[in-house]
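Workshop exercise sheet. Pairs work together: one partner reads the sequence aloud, the other fills in the structure field after running the prediction. Swap roles for the next sheet.
Pair: D.N. / O.F.
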Amino acid sequence: MRVTLFCSRLCPSVPLRPDSARCNSTMDLRQLEVLKAIAETGSFTGAGDKLHVSQSAVSRQVLLLEEELQEPIFLRVGRRIRITTAGEALLQLSNRVFQDLKETVAVISDSKESLSGTLRLVGGMTVCLYVFPVLLKEFRRIHPNVEINVTAGVSEKFIGDLRSGSADLGLLTLPIGQPDFVTLPVLKEELLLVTAPNHALSRRKKITPQDLVRQQFVLFEAGSNTRRALDEFFVKEQIRPKVVMDTENVEIIKAMVHSGLGISIIPYQAVARELRNGRFFCSRIEGHKLFRETGWVYLRSNPVPRMVQEVLSVFQRVLPKLRLTPPSQKILSAH
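Structure field:
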């Protein structure tokens, strides 16, 4: 493999000879490897030992480079050598080239092999119930040799799992606010008021914030990102909700709401199916469109692990199948 450089760009601070300012210098990876070995070992002899070639072969490669660049790369001071400014610039190039080559070979090797190993996913309860089943069905079809482990819980707990490496990827309620993580917002879920079908609010043509005063609520647990979004809404509207139960489990919330214990505000996709059979009444709140944002979260790395890349790719395929917002702007009565 050969690499072509413009020697005038190697080190602009080093004055070049007039006849070399525009010359093209062609060098191969072996010469860059020799340069790197000399810098690492501190001598031509050490570089030869490392590369299993003679000292004269090392000297010859250095001489060829210096002739092409018309600049010294190393200064010989007695038995010691010192790298020049031009040589340092070339060494930095060498490091970049070999790192890029290593990463490229890894990507090519990965693409030729079928994906295998274990995928460790984490996510909130709603994500595990309504997003992961659709995602993982498609993922398993494409990558049948991957073993999948899924853990449900709250976003705050999973940050430590992702950082320690006990989880690979999370689909979590945002924001996360951790600089060592990549966060990719991918879902904007609408939050709607949900009541039992025989609740007094279900008979109203529209529901205003004031209709929620003195109502009993079953909500997501305090401290979660979803609960914080709801608490901001309550504060803005000067509502002091009477919370009779809070939990991270959206299915428990739905069961309590259906029993008449209270009302709730939950993602539309959590009740989309039950609205068709009249199990719940669902509505927007007049003057408000409440949302929560969910995104992929994983530890920052270069390159991004292939397992993570494949999950993100498959997710984009299944995204249109998810029910994130109601099909109508009207109150969604389930009568």
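Discussion prompt: The first helix runs from residue 29 to 41. What would you look at next?
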